[in-house]
Design brief:
- Belongs to the binding-protein-dependent transport system permease family.
- Helix 8 packs parallel to helix 14.
- With 289 residues, this protein is an all-alpha fold.
- The chain folds into 2 domains: 59 residues, no CATH class; 218 residues, Orthogonal Bundle (MetI-like fold).
- It contains 14 helices and no strands.
- 70% of the residues lie in helices and 0% in strands.
Length: 289
């Protein structure tokens, strides 16, 4: 018996597929909905109900309470600074180096490509990295974060492949018209590379926004901590031992949930605007290797 419809698809298989996807979607959304609902709930409701997806009484006190905390707003500002400056440095250096390595006439290109690939396999290690940063006098400086993560080797390799996929005839025509290498890069190559640049801008922005390990390693002053470090400190506190911070703020469960939402909100807002470039940029960058 033929179970396929006029389009050649099996209705039973499609139904099972949608069912599995729906279950997966609910499993993903349930924790997020719980965090959102909890951020708008009262402290009494946490004690009385435990788990819930819709609070009986809605209140935004947790958000107001959290935003009035100077330590939290300072950490948020630090995270914005690290993300904006760090991403600008990342995408600028990655684009310039990838463009140079994409040229077959570059002397020493094979050696440089090998060194880039080598760093993907072997790392310097935490202690040697810390000693180098210390000798450079970058402890308690954001430059310790910027320089240690200035170029991601994987992003560089993919962007290099993208530049190699640009027709050489286009560049030769520009040179014949008197276009210099810098002008060729800024006026022709980079505009054509916007899908790739947007993709890796998103990658770098997410990485910088979520920076944690290097921050606790190189930043000793709590006033310089980014949001992720402060968020961990907040979530680790409990209602019996460390329920207040140095400023006297008490972190109730609703306040902690509100902090999680505020921390994730910037990326949730930015991602939809860059999503259309994501698949296109990754596919174009993987045409050549």
């Amino acid at each position: 018996m033929n179970t396929f419809d006029s389009r050649g698809k099996d209705p039973l298989f499609i139904s099972i597929l949608y069912g599995v996807l729906l279950i997966a979607l609910l499993c993903i959304l349930a924790p997020f909905i719980y965090v959102v609902a909890s951020s708008f709930a009262t402290e009494h409701e946490f004690v009385s109900r435990g788990f819930f997806l819709i609070p009986k009484e809605w209140t935004a006190e947790a958000y107001g309470y959290l935003l009035s905390n100077r330590n939290f707003t300072q950490a948020f500002g630090n995270a914005v600074t690290i993300t904006v400056v760090g991403t600008a440095i990342n995408i600028t250096l990655t684009s310039l180096m990838a463009y140079g390595l994409s040229k077959s006439w570059l002397k020493g290109r094979r050696v440089l490509n090998f060194l880039v690939l080598f760093t993907m396999i072997f790392a310097g290690g935490m202690i040697p990295t810390y000693l180098v940063v210390k000798e450079l006098g970058l402890i308690n400086s954001y430059w310790a974060l910027y320089l240690n993560t200035a170029i991601a080797p994987f992003n560089l390799i993919v962007m290099r492949s993208f530049f190699q996929s640009i027709p050489s005839e286009l560049e030769e025509a520009a040179r014949i018209d008197g276009c210099s290498e810098w002008r060729l890069l800024w006026r022709i190559v980079l505009p054509l590379s916007m899908p790739s640049i947007a993709t890796f801008t998103l990658f770098y922005a997410v990485f910088n926004w979520n920076t944690y390990f290097f921050a606790i390693l190189f930043l000793n002053d709590s006033a310089d901590w980014p949001l992720q470090v402060y968020l961990r400190q907040m979530l680790m506190e409990n209602s019996t031992a460390m329920e207040t911070d140095s400023g006297g703020f008490r972190y109730t469960p609703a306040v902690k949930m509100a902090a999680v939402i505020i921390t994730a909100l910037p990326l949730l807002v930015v991602y939809p605007f860059l999503q259309k470039y994501f698949n296109k940029g990754m596919m174009l960058g993987s045409v050549k290797g």
